[in-house]
Design goal:
mainly alpha; 78% helix; 315 residues
Amino acid sequence: WMLRLVLFFIRLKRRDREYMKKKSLFQASFEESLNLEDDGFRKLQQEQHDKTAKFFKNGHASLWFCIRSFILSLIFPVGFNFILLAISMQLHESDTLTLPIAQHESLTVDVFLILLIIWLSLVVIGKFIKRTYLLPYRYQFHAFTFMIWFLLEMDLIFLDFLLANLASWEIIGIVGFIVMMIYWMFNIELAGLRKLMYGEVLKETSRNKIAKMIALYGMGILGVAMIVKHLLGFFTIDISNSIKGFGFLLLWLFCNFVLFAIVIFIGFPYFLHAYYKWKYPEEYREWEGQSLAEWYGKAYLKKHPELLEKDSGEN
C-alpha cells in the first residue's frame, strides 16, 4: 500500500504539472492574480496610473480633464501622426534627398484616415467602460494604442526607403529580424509572468532558442552582409550614403525595439492586471479597502443598484 500511495502522489504531481503547462495567463485565481502587483515592469506604469486615477474619483472625469485630454489628443495622437503623413509626402516630393525613395508612398492620406478611424473607434468603444476603477486603464490604453499607431506610420515611411535601396532578400531579412525580436521579447514576458503568477518554470524550447539566437546575432550577420555588399559596389549610391543609410536603418530598428519593449514588458502586464480587476471586482475592492462608491463610482451604482442591495444583504 505504501508503493501505491507513492505512485498516487507521483501521478498527482504529474497531472499538476500538465495542468500548469496548459494553464492560460487569463485563468488565474484571485490569489494568483495578486502576484501581478509584484511585477517590476508593471510598477513602472503605476505612478502614471495613480496620477490619472485622481481625475476619476467621482466616477467621471472633470470638465478640465476632458478639455485637456481633447487638446492632448489633437497634439499627440492626431497631430504627431499627421506630421508623419506630411513628412512622408514631403519626402516623396523632394528633389534633394541623398537616398532614393520609392516612387509610390506607403503612408497615404487614405492609410492615415483608416488608422485615425480605428483609433477613434477604440476611444468610442472605451466610453462604454463606466466602472471608476477601470477608467485609468481606459485612458492609458489610448496612450499605448497611439504609440502603436505612431510606430506603424514610421515603419511605412522607412519601408519606402527600404524598397528603393535594398534587395528583396534584405528587406525580408530585416522584417524577419523584427518579427523574431517581437516573438523573443513576448516569450520572455510570458515566461516571466507564468513564473510570477503560478511559480511555473518552463524549459526553453528549441524554437525559443532559435528565436533568441536570431534576435541576438541575426542583425549582426545581416548588417555585415549589407556593408560588404555596399563596399563591393553593388549599389549605385556612394559609400558615404551607404553608411548614412545604414545608420538610419539602425536608428529605425532601435525605435521599433524600444516601443515594442514598452508595449510588451510594461503594457501587457499592466492591462493583464486590469483584466483581473474586471474579473474579480469585489475581491479587489475588498483587497484595496475601498467602498462601493469609491470603487464603482456613484454614476455606475445608480445604474446597478443590485450591487448596493447585495452589499447591504451581506452586511
